[in-house]
Write a structure and sequence with these properties.
The structure holds three protein chains of three kinds.
Chain A lengths: L1 H29 L6 H6 L5 H11 L5 H13 L13 H36 L4 H15 L2 H13 L16 H7 L1 H27 L2 H8 L4 H38 L5 H10 L3 H28 L2 H4 L3
Helix pairs in contact in A: 1-4, 1-13, 5-6, 5-9, 5-11, 6-9, 7-9, 7-11, 9-11, 10-11, 11-12, 11-13, 12-13
Chain B lengths: L1 H27 L5 H5 L3 H18 L1 H4 L30 H37 L1 H15 L3 H12 L3 H28 L2 H9 L3 H37 L11 H8 L11 H25 L5
Helix pairs in contact in B: 1-3, 3-5, 3-12, 5-6, 5-8, 5-10, 6-8, 7-8, 8-10, 10-11, 10-12, 11-12
Chain C lengths: L4 E14 L2 E14 L3 E5 L6 H7 L8 E10 L2 E2 L5 H7 L4 E4 L3 H4 L6 H11 L5 H14 L5 H4 L9 H12 L6 E5 L7 H18 L2 E6 L2 H7 L2 E6 L2 E7 H6 L4 H8 L17 E10 L2 E11 L4 E5 L6 H9 L6 E6 L2 E2 L9 H6 E4 L3 H4 L6 H13 L3 H14 L4 H4 L9 H14 L4 E5 L7 H18 L2 E6 L2 H7 L2 E6 L2 E7 H6 L4 H8 L8 H9 L4
Parallel strand pairs in C: 3-8, 3-9, 6-7, 7-8, 13-18, 13-19, 16-17, 17-18
Antiparallel strand pairs in C: 1-2, 1-4, 4-5, 9-10, 11-12, 11-14, 14-15, 19-20
The chains are: A mainly alpha, B mainly alpha, C alpha/beta.
Chain lengths: 317, 304, 538
């Protein structure tokens, strides 16, 4: 058992290290700017005096490592700095929107994970059947669709008829059931995009195992196909399946950006796109860091879970 | 009801294109290639046909298009009627013309980006697998860290910094995707490097370059070609997504992603015109995916 | 006394799919098995023996189909019966023991859970009774700690023990018939004995009928009442074990026996400077020493066989000699001069002098290169041959390994048979014109008759080209046929070394003795005598 805790500990440390490196990359990226932040802000016509004053005000005269540490210190205390476009603290801009985005991602996950695992297992069980071929072709097709294509088709189909709203207006007073109702189309879009991928990979993970000698052994012991898949294949496919789920939940984070724009959903993705358009670098940095952290955390959880489900690691010799 | 009609039409079109294309491939393929096409699935022949059509449209765009790429030909949002068979856009440019030019711009840029990402990523990946040691360790850890940032988010960050010109778009997407190619190329090459024939070649005293060229690359081609197809889809979709967000290819260049964005308002009036460029993107990605899926299935030795 | 018939197979045909064409794997075989009888199925790879064994359970692997004939198990027509009925028989009345127990136990479940699955699902007995039964059978299979071993996961148990646990599992429903599919092939010889003895005892105790599939005649002679010989899906002959051993009727059967008789007389001990001299080598990976103080010499025109079971360090020794693994201590002398430890530091000339032939020709030949380049490259690189001269040399080499140059020179490895691929491996080594060749288990992936061809070829080439061979093998039959000197290794150390005749006649060390006596002999009573001699069992 000690072994496993040590392993989990190592993974956690590695995760922290990755977060650190990511923060360096995100911060360091701004160092690649042809000029500097002050020149970006004021444009080419700025006088040397105003530039110098602004540099002083932003602390740009300090060496990069000091500025990085200051920034990191702030981030760790929930202070992401000030938006260049709106002059408001970034934490304030991000606050409510982070909740909205998380809600949307969880909503989509709650729909897609059970659905795709079930479809994946069924496709593996009935492989090469008509169901399998159809679902494979459909999955390939829906993987290939850009998110906005799916979104607009849904809008055309479900919002035109007035069933669901095509724009999401969420305020602090919106109730949970209203959120579920208004968020349905964005969540459905995300679900359609990730389900196909998750299902295909679940199917592949199981089929990969179906060629193993122990699966043949189970069949030769007279076990039914369903029992072979559920009791003999699935426990060994857990690690790959967990990773598939994590990968796709992480993908939701990216998909959320486009979907939020289509449905005018007040989330982080929407904010990030606006910030990129305005070249509001501090805001972009902050949101990139939040998205990347969520991504790292997800992968970390998946890693730990798949370690725990591996009997070779859980029960040492 | 409408949905069912659309589905039925789509299915008929799919089978029609697929069957004709398979028949054509079987007839015109050179003799030694014939077995390849004999048992090809309909999805794959459909994919090949669609890709060929896109390439032809892209190459002969100026001949096919009825108007000039960014010529304003009439009032905005004209309905589908001759001579504007698919109507006009927000600025009164011919939709059909811009769709045709889009094949050239969007697909061309995506292809160039993929090629760049692929060359850089696969060379570094194979090199790292062959050399091993600290170079491999550092390069791989670095790539791991970069891959820990979601691709679209990282692209957005870099685009903020470098601005959104076509060149920086290509460079940014290519470098983000090169990390993914590196990962795959490295793992494929690692599978090959442990083979006895590589050990034999090393013990013979062969140089690195020959090892890569004669011993590793020929054996890595099948998975790398499939990866090229998949990568193209990813790049194509991300460029389209960025253009859709207004951060990719900029007007007046005709591009499918930005065409969706410019004309999106029509959707709310029940007009499907903006879905055409989106559908064009989807159709090509589907086609490439179908072909790649077939290739992967063949390469896996018909395991299932 | 006429025994009751249990299984009747008539004119059975099984097809396998390659691409979209079907070809026959089993071509109309008849088989009759009585209750309590053990039938040995013997044949080389591709003979269809596993496919036939599985068909006795009414089962065909993915990509195979039973296309003709009848299978009658105790009055039940297995071809006509619905799948649910066949499933009810499998595991309950007909059980299966697979070749690799390590791969055939599900890694996610404990041994005893897998044992109990059959009896519980088939409704033979409840879980508690099955658990008690498992412990009893583990005891009968002479597994250590029978009370406790079932509560381990497969990866926590050794290969030989797993194989016995699998036999116990097959017995769990007290079936009428068990199919043993090469159950000891993957085991070391010393482990094989224990498993063979345990399997034989339990089958006799319960009076279970069995089909015992193997490629090893000596093994099947210990286990079976009758033997059936298969060749490429056809029956060659069938008779009771005693007369099969004494007087085989068919040429093919006789040729299977004859392989063991190929032996060349050992040459007298060589004098002078050895070609390669391994001096006090200690080497390993990470913190572990895999080799400890290993020394031996190899002389020109002599063959040194390095024998040992898996994990004894014989392949690591080869890696040290070739320079892939620089030793921690000790050195390699070549013609009396020390070689640089790593191959990277060796000169082209030094690399040329020592060549290697690998076990798996499939992974040792680049599948994308044609024979012309595979063989030609060393000649081009080391000897600077080009154009016409190179072409001539490649053709000479192909002729030397008995392959027609015109027919083969532009082929890919995938267009060759296993034995031919191994010959290409030999030609590639010869192309460098070396003084010494390391042969790493070069025959163990091949069928017996093909093995013989390769051994004869290597022997002839040695005489013609004055080569020194280091022959790594776990197969003592090979050692007997080709070695001049033998080096016995265990746990990374040299246990004993000396001329072949002396070592085989009078081994000095216990381990050598154990190893030599564990090799199955073509004698009905070999296992009985051996067990009696070891005092384990009467």
């Amino acid at each position: 058992m000690n072994e496993i805790w040590r392993m989990i500990g190592r993974r956690l440390l590695l995760g922290l290290l990755t977060l650190f490196v990511i923060s360096v990359v995100i911060f360091g990226a701004t160092e690649l700017l042809p000029g500097d932040l002050a020149r970006e802000l004021l444009g080419q016509s700025a006088t040397p005096e105003t530039l110098a004053a602004l540099r002083e005000q932003l602390g740009l005269n300090d060496p990069a490592p000091i500025r990085y540490l200051n920034w990191l210190w702030g981030v760790l205390h929930g202070d992401f700095g000030v938006s260049m476009a709106t002059k408001k603290p970034i934490a304030e801009l991000v606050g409510g929107r982070l909740g909205n985005t998380l809600f949307l991602a969880l909503y989509a996950a709650a729909l897609s994970v059970p659905l795709s695992l079930m479809l994946g297992v069924l496709a593996a069980l009935w492989r090469n059947s008509v169901f399998d071929r159809m679902s494979n072709a459909l999955a390939l097709t829906s993987i290939s669709f850009p998110e906005f294509f799916v979104a607009y088709i849904l809008i055309l189909w479900l919002a035109q008829t007035g069933l669901f709203p095509s724009m999401v207006r969420i305020t602090a007073s919106t109730t949970f059931s209203e959120r579920i109702y208004m968020g349905f189309l964005p969540a459905l879009t995300l679900t359609l995009v990730v389900t196909a991928h998750m299902m295909r990979m679940t199917r592949a993970a199981i089929i990969n195992l179906l060629a193993s000698p122990y699966i043949e052994m189970a069949r030769l012991k007279g076990m039914s196909p369903l029992r072979v898949v559920l009791r003999h294949a699935v426990p060994n496919a857990l690690a790959p399946i967990i990773n598939v789920v994590a990968l796709n939940l992480a993908y939701l984070i990216t998909g959320v950006v486009v979907v939020e724009v289509v449905f005018v959903y007040p989330g982080l993705g929407q904010l990030m796109v606006d910030a990129v358009t305005n070249r509001d670098i501090p805001v972009v940095q902050a949101i990139a860091l939040i998205f990347a952290s969520a991504y790292v955390l997800l992968n970390l959880v998946a890693d730990v879970l798949s370690t725990i489900t591996n009997p070779r690691l859980m029960h040492r010799r | 009801m409408q949905v069912l009609v659309v589905l039925a039409v789509a299915l008929v079109a799919f089978f029609g294109v697929a069957l004709v294309s398979r028949a054509a491939l079987r007839t015109f393929a050179p003799a030694h290639q014939k077995p390849t096409f004999r048992d090809m699935p309909l999805t794959a022949s459909f994919g090949i046909a669609v890709i060929l059509i896109y390439v032809l449209v892209a190459v002969f765009a100026p001949l096919l298009a009825p108007f000039k790429e960014s010529e304003v030909v009439g009032a905005q949002y004209l309905p589908w009627a001759a001579p504007y068979y698919l109507g006009t856009d927000k600025l009164g440019r011919d939709m059909l013309t811009r769709l045709i030019y889009g094949a050239r711009n969007t697909v061309g840029i995506a292809f160039a980006t993929t090629a760049l990402a692929f060359t850089v990523g696969s060379i570094l990946g194979i090199w790292a697998a062959l050399v091993g040691g600290w170079l491999d360790q550092w390069l791989s850890r670095f790539v791991d860290a970069l891959m820990a940032i979601p691709a679209l988010i990282f692209s957005l960050l870099l685009l903020t910094i470098f601005g959104t010109s076509v060149l920086s778009l290509i460079l940014v997407i290519a470098s983000v995707d090169a990390t993914r190619v590196y990962r795959l190329a490295r793992s494929v090459a690692q599978g090959i490097v442990v083979m006895d024939y590589i050990e034999a070649a090393r013990l013979r005293g062969e140089g690195k370059w020959r090892l890569i060229r004669r011993e590793i690359l020929p054996n890595a081609m099948a998975p790398l070609v499939a990866e090229f197809g998949l990568r193209f889809c990813f790049v194509f979709l991300s460029i389209s997504a960025l253009s859709f967000l207004g951060l990719g290819i900029k007007p007046p260049t005709a591009d499918w992603g930005s065409m969706v964005r410019e004309n999106a308002t029509l959707i709310t009036f029940g007009d499907i015109t903006p879905l055409l460029p989106a559908g064009a993107i989807a159709l090509l990605t589907v086609a490439v995916n179908f072909v790649v899926d077939w290739q992967l299935h063949r390469a896996s030795g018909l395991k299932e | 006394m006429e025994k009751q018939v249990l299984l009747t197979i008539r004119d059975l045909k099984i097809e396998g799919r390659s691409g979209d064409a079907w070809h026959q794997i089993v071509k109309g075989v008849d088989l009759t098995l009585h209750k309590g009888e053990v039938l040995g199925l013997i044949g080389e790879s591709g003979a269809g023996k596993s496919t036939l064994g599985l068909a006795a359970m009414g089962y065909a692997r993915d990509g195979c189909r039973i296309s003709g004939g009848s299978i009658d198990f105790d009055g039940i027509d297995l071809r006509a019966a619905p799948e649910a009925d066949r499933r009810a028989l499998r595991g309950k009345r007909i059980a299966y023991v697979a070749q690799s127990a390590a791969a055939s136990f599900n890694p996610a479940h404990k041994l005893i859970d897998q044992y109990c699955e059959g009896p519980v699902v088939h409704g033979v007995m409840p879980r508690e009774k099955a658990e008690a039964d498992a412990v009893e059978l583990y005891r009968r299979m002479r597994l250590p700690n029978p009370d406790e071993i079932g509560f381990r996961y497969p990866h926590q148990v050794s290969g030989g023990q797993l194989q016995r646990a699998m036999t116990a599992m097959a017995m769990s429903c007290r079936p009428d018939l068990i199919i043993f599919d090469e159950p000891t092939t993957a085991l070391d010889v010393t482990t094989q004995i224990e498993v063979l003895a345990a399997i034989r005892d339990i089958v006799r105790q319960f009076g279970t009928a069995a089909i015992y599939i193997t490629h090893d005649l000596a093994v099947v002679a210990q286990m079976a009442d009758r033997i059936k010989v298969l060749l490429r899906g056809d029956e060659v002959e069938e008779s009771d074990t005693r007369s099969m051993l004494a007087a085989p009727r068919e040429d093919y059967t006789r040729s299977l026996w004859a392989v063991r008789s190929f032996a060349r007389p050992a040459l007298p001990a060589a004098t002078g400077t050895p070609v390669v001299s391994v001096r006090n080598v200690t080497a390993g990976y990470g913190a572990v020493d895999v080799l400890k103080d290993v020394s031996f010499d190899i002389h020109a025109r002599r063959t040194v066989a390095v024998v040992g079971e898996s994990g004894s360090g014989k392949s690591t020794t080869a890696r040290v000699i070739t320079g892939l693994l620089p030793p921690r201590k000790g050195e390699i002398l070549f013609n009396g001069k020390p070689l640089p430890p790593s191959f990277k530091a060796r000169s082209r000339e030094e690399l040329r002098q020592c060549q290697m032939i690998y076990q798996m020709a499939d992974t040792a030949l680049n599948p994308k290169l044609r024979l012309r380049e595979l063989i030609g490259r060393p000649a081009e690189m080391y000897l600077g041959l080009k154009g016409r001269a190179l072409e001539t040399r490649i053709r000479d080499l192909l002729a030397l390994i008995e392959l027609e140059p015109d027919k083969y020179i532009d082929r890919l490895p995938s267009e060759l048979s296993g034995g031919q691929k191994q010959r290409i491996g030999i030609a590639r080594a010869l192309a460098a014109e070396p003084q010494m060749i390391i042969c790493d288990e070069v025959t163990s992936a091949l069928d017996q008759i093909v093995q013989e061809g390769i051994l004869k070829l290597l022997d002839r080439l040695q005489g013609e080209l004055n080569l020194a061979y280091m022959f790594i093998t776990h197969d003592l039959a090979t050692v007997k046929s080709i070695a001049d000197e033998v080096v016995v290794m265990q746990h990374g150390q040299v246990v004993e070394r000396g001329p072949k005749a002396e070592l085989f006649a009078a081994p000095k060390e216990d381990y050598t003795n154990l190893l030599l006596s564990s090799v199955p002999e073509m004698d009905l009573d070999w296992l009985n005598r051996l067990l009696a001699a070891r005092g384990e069992h009467a």
